[in-house]
Amino acid sequence: METAFPQLRDVMVVVVDGATPELAEDAATRLAQKLAGDTAHFRRVSRPDGGEFFAREGLLFSSPADVASATRALVDAQPLLGPLAADPSLRGVTAAIGTMADGAASGAVSLDRIDQPLSALDAASAAVLAGRTAPFSWQALFASKGGALAPPKRRLILVQPVLDFTDLMPGHAASDAVRAASAALGLDAAHGLGVQVTGEVPLADEEFASIADNIGLVAMIMLLAMVLTLWFAVRSARLVAAILLTIVLGLLITMALGLLVVGRFNLISVAFIPLFVGLGVDFCIQICVRYNAERADGALPAAAMVQAVEALERSLALAAAAIFLGFAAFLPTAYVGIAELGVIAGMGMIVTLALSLSLLPALVLLFGADRSRRDAGLPGLAALDRWLTRQRRGVLWSFVAALALSVALLPLVGFDFNPLHLRDPHGAAMMALADLTRDPDRTPETIDVLAASPAQARALAARLSALPEVSQVISLDSFVPDNQPPKLAQIADAALLLDVTLNPLDIAPPPSDAELIAALQQCAAKLRAAAGSGQGAGARHARALAEDFDRLARGSAAQRSTLSARLAMPLGVMLDQMRAALQAAPVTRADLPPELVHDWVTADGRARLQVFPKGDTADNRVIRRFRDAVAGVTPAISGLPVATQAAAGTVALAFVEAGLLALVLVSLLLYAMLRDAREVLFTLAPVVLSIFLTLGTCVLIGQPINFANIIAFPLLLGVGTAFHIYFVMAWRGGATELLQSSLARAVLFSALATGSAFGSLWLSHHPGTASMGKILMISLVWTLVCALIFEPALLGPPQRRDSIKNQ
Amino acid sequence: MARGAGMTRIVALCLRHTRMTLLVALVLALGAAWVVTQRFAMSTDTADLIWRRSTGASTSARWKPRFRNCAM
Measuring CA to CA, which residue among A224, A223, A234, A241 is closest to residue A291? Predict the structure, then answer.
C-alpha cells in the first residue's frame, strides 16, 4: 500500500480549531500557505477538507433535503446579504441592520424574526466595548436553520515533513516549524484559535520525548538502587566499583557487537540493556560474594578469587550456556523484535561471562583488598531454612495451589498490542489524536484495501459496505456525489436569485472613521424607532444594540476599527464560500482534482478503499471483529487494526514457539550436563512456575501484556534459569542449609539489584516503559520467591553429603 | 558432570597479568565506544518489530495510522 501510495506515509496532521467556522477556515488557509512555502521542513502540504473542489462542490455531498434547506436559508437571508456583499464592512452591517429595522418599524417584519442577528451583534459590540475577545460568526448566524451550510470549527492540514533521521526525533524540526508558523500568524487562544499537531511522525517523536521526559530522575534512581543493593550484597565500595566498571564495559561491547551484527536496535531489542545488566550483575555478584566467603575463610585476595571461580565455574558455565540457548530460541521466530533481542542478548551473555572472569578479577585485585568479612552468607535466614525443612510438603502444596490458580487465570491474561496504548495519553500529539478520533470519521482504526482495478474496487466497496461491522467505505467514487440533478437544480435556482446579491457590480470602498460614526448613529436611531417600547426579545435586543452603537460612536476609533475587523473578516470568508458553493457543477470521475485522484488510484489503475469500523473503536474486541469481517471479504488489507491483530498473533506465536524451543534446548543441555532427569526437572520447574505466577499476578492487578513489558519474560527465563542452576548444582554437590549460604546471599541481592534498578522504570512517564518496569519487578519478585522458597523445598535434603558444605 | 571450561585458569592468568588485562579492556572499551558513536541506529517503527524487512512480504500490512477521509 505504501509503495502504491507513497504520499500517505510519514504523515503529520495539523488540526486547526477556531472559535468560529470562519476563524478556522481563515487560519487553515493562511497556515497551509505558509507551510507550503517552507520547503525546508515540508515536502507536501494539502488540505483534505478544503480547497477549490470542496468549496465549489461541497453542497452536493449533502442530502437533497439538506441542500434545499441550505439554499432556502440563503434566499431568506437575501435582504441582509445584499448590503453586506456591496459593503463588507461595519458600515455595510449597520446599513443592513438599519434596513431591517426600517422594515420592522413599518410593520413589514417583526423584530422577533430578526432577533438572532440583533442579539449576536449586541454580544459582539458589547465585547468590544468591554475590551473582551468574542469572535463573530456569520456562518453560524445563517446556517442555524440549515445543517449543510454549517461548516466545522475544525480544519485539517496534511503535511509530509522533511524527516531528519540523524535526530532521534526525526520530525521534531517540522513540528516546531508548524508551531513557529502558527505563532507568527497569531493563531493562538487570544485570537480564538488553537493549532495541534498529530499523526504518525509527531506521535513517534513524542514517544521519544516522553521516554526522555524524566529519564534523568529514573536513571538516577536506577543507579542509586543498583549501587545500594550491590553494596549490601558485597559490603565493599571497591567491589561495587569493580562490578560497575565491568558492567559498563560489557554493556558498551555488547552494544557495539549488536550494532555490527544486527545493524540497528529496535524498540524491543534495546531491552538487551536490562537483560545484560541483570545477568551481568548476577555473575559479578555470584563471584564477589563467593570471593568474600573465601576471604572470610582466610584466603588472600588472589587465591580467594581463584577459589571462588573454581567453586562456581561449573554453575556459571552451565547457566551461561542455558541462558544463551534460551535467547537463541527466539531466533527462528517471526517476531523480529525479540529475535534481534535474542541475538544481542546472547552475545551479551558471552561478553558478560568473559568479563566476569577476566576484567572483574583484575579490577578487584587492582583496587586492593578490603578487610575480610564474616557475613558472606545469610545467617539470619537460619530459621527460615529450618521452617522450610519442617514444612516442606506444606510449602510445596501452597505453590501447587498458587500454580493452579495462575493456570486458571491464564485465559484472562490480557494482550494489548495496540502501540497507541503504550504512549503517554497526556502528550500533545496523543491528546490531539484522542480529540480528533472522537469523530468516528477520523479514527485511525481504519482498514485500507488495495483493489486491482476501479471495477474491482466498486465490487469490493459494495460487499464491504454490507458488513454489519463496517460503518462506511470510502473510495474515489465516494467523491462523486450521488443524486446530483435535483441538488444541482436547487443550487442553480438559488444562484439565479442570489447572483446579483452576492456579486454586486460595485463594492463600496472601506469607510472612514467619520463615516462609521455616522453609520452607527443612524442605525442606532432606526433600531430605537423600531423597538419603541416593545417588550419582546427582538425589541430588547434592538434597544441594547442601539445603546452599543451609540457608545461605539462616542468611543475611540480603535474600538470601531476592532468591531469592524471582527465583523468584516468572517463576512469575507462566508461570502467567498457562498459564491463558490453556488457555482456547483456536475461532477464525474473525470472532474475530480488530480491530487485527489492521486490519493486513491495509482497510475497503473489500482484503487484504494478505506473501510471504517462500526462501534467503539477503543474496544479491542470491536476492532478484532471488524478486522476479521473485512479479511473475510478480501485478504489485500492493511492499516492499524490489521497490523495490531497480526502483531498480536505473531507475538503470541513467537513466544509459544520460543518458549517450547527454549524448554527443549535447555532441558537437553541440562540433561547432557547433569545426566539426571529429576535434576533437570528441579531446575526448570521453578522457572515455569515463576512465569505462570507472573502471568497470574498480571491478571489480578489488571496489567495486560504489551509490546514493551513482554521483554520481562526473556529476563525471567534467563535470570530464573541461572538461579535454579546454582541451587541444583550446590544441592547435588551436597550443600545443606541453602538459605544461609553465600549462594543465597548472591541470589537474593542479584535479584534485588536487577529488580530494584529496573523496577524504577515504573516511575517513567511513558506508559510502555512504566509497564515494563512493573512486570520486571513482579517477575523478579516471583523468581526470587521461587528460588529462595520453592526451590529449597523442592530439592529437600541434599543428594550427597560428602561434598562441599555451604556452597 | 563435565569439568568447567578452564575458567579457573583464565582467572589465574588474568590475575597474573593484571595490567595487560586492563589494557586489553581499555582497548576494547575504546573500540566499542567508537563503533557505538559511528554506527548507532535505532528503529522506532513498531512495524519493524513484527516483520522482517528482507522478505518484503509485509509491506502491505505494516502499521501506519491514517488520517485520511477528512474531506467527508
Answer: A234
